[in-house]
């Protein structure tokens, strides 16, 4: 009888989520360059085995995401876990960023220390579903332009230089939604290193290093990140996505944020009422397929009646929602008279 042990399977490639350990550094132009040759940017193709390329990019993107989040925090934003009230990061959640001082959830001491009060305008930004939280374009982050220009760091920095309104000198509040990382990923419970093989020839120190690299904490991911996440071995077919839409559960589903439509609804109907003062106007910016999701959400009579007096601006960046499919006449009039469409050029 033939028996294949877990320890006999080839290990899934593992790379540290650290720019320096990956062989890169951030130069004085805020661009990521190779330590070995500073004239070169990120190199994706390091192997003929595509799995090695994917796993290296996964670690590279995680390192970039951590750097971006550090910079956003330094600009005064705070990370909030959805559903609201989630305190255990090991439980399924979707992270977003929001300004610290928008007023609706400030305690009494904070209100006393802030004589200006809450901002009169809040900018809500929905990025593309293919991007991690805070990322605009990896081709800019990992190439000419640099981290700030290719991420929400530049957008937030610009917004902080604005006035909330003609009568409100403080900058507007900011909410960065997360339409991309809506899949909850959990590390595999065992991998090829879990079995004990008395005949194995692998050095124990190398084995321990491999185990440490394979260790990942459960977290929310994009679809691309989910496919590139660690597997039990390098020869597994992939990671099964368990959403269990019919049953309302699934281990990879985040409650209330199972897809982009649910996330947009949750942001407007739960996050905004909890964080934004009732009198503040909303400027909504949506990119790509997120713009289509926002339009679908507003394109309903009862929904638009609830939000029409608070939406001051809707910037549609690269959306493709057909105008002839809009059913709500009030929302159609708003798009024609107030909204700002932007078309991307390559």
UniProtKB/TrEMBL annotation:
Q: Which GO terms describe its biological process?
A: regulatory ncRNA-mediated heterochromatin formation
> Which top-level group of life is the source organism from?
Eukaryota
Q: Where is the Arb2 domain?
A: 15-338
- Where does the record place the region Disordered? 186-217
Q: Spell out the Basic and acidic residues composition-biased ranges.
A: 198-208
State which residue ranges cross the membrane: none
Q: Supply the InterPro entries for this chain.
A: Arb2, Arb2_dom
GO cellular component, as recorded? nucleus
Name-wise, this protein is Arb2 domain-containing protein
PANTHER family reported for this sequence: FAM172 FAMILY PROTEIN HOMOLOG CG10038
Sample GO molecular function, one term? siRNA binding
């Amino acid at each position: 009888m033939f028996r294949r042990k877990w320890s006999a399977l080839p290990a899934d490639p593992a790379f540290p989520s650290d720019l320096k350990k990956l062989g890169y550094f951030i130069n004085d132009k805020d661009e990521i360059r190779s330590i070995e040759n500073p004239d070169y940017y990120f190199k994706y193709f390091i192997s003929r085995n595509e799995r090695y390329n994917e796993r290296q990019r996964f670690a590279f993107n995680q390192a970039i995401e951590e750097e971006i989040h550090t910079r956003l925090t330094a600009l005064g934003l705070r990370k909030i876990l959805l559903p609201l009230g989630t305190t255990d990061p090991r439980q399924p959640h979707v992270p977003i960023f929001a300004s610290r001082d928008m007023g609706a959830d400030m305690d009494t001491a904070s209100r006393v220390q802030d004589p200006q009060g809450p901002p009169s305008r809040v900018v809500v930004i929905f990025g593309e579903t293919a991007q991690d939280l805070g990322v605009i374009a990896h081709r800019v982050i990992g190439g000419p332009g640099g981290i700030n220009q290719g991420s929400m760091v530049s957008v937030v920095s610009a917004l902080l230089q604005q006035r909330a309104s003609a009568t409100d000198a403080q900058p507007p509040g900011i909410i960065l939604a997360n339409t991309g990382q809506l899949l909850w990923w959990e590390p595999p419970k065992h991998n090829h290193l879990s079995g004990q093989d008395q005949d194995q020839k692998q050095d124990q120190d190398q084995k321990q290093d491999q185990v440490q690299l394979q260790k990942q904490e459960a977290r929310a991911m994009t679809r691309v990140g989910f496919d590139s996440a660690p597997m039990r071995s390098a020869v597994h077919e992939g990671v099964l996505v368990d959403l269990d839409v019919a049953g309302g559960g699934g281990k990879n589903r985040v409650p209330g944020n199972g897809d982009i439509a649910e996330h947009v609804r949750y942001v407007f109907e739960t996050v905004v009422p909890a964080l934004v003062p009732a009198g503040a106007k909303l400027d909504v910016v949506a990119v790509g397929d997120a713009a289509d999701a926002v339009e679908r959400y507003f394109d309903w009579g009862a929904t638009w009646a609830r939000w029409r007096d608070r939406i001051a601006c809707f910037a549609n960046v690269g959306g493709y929602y057909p105008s002839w499919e809009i059913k709500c006449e009030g929302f159609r009039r708003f798009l024609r008279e107030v909204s700002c469409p932007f078309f991307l050029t390559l």
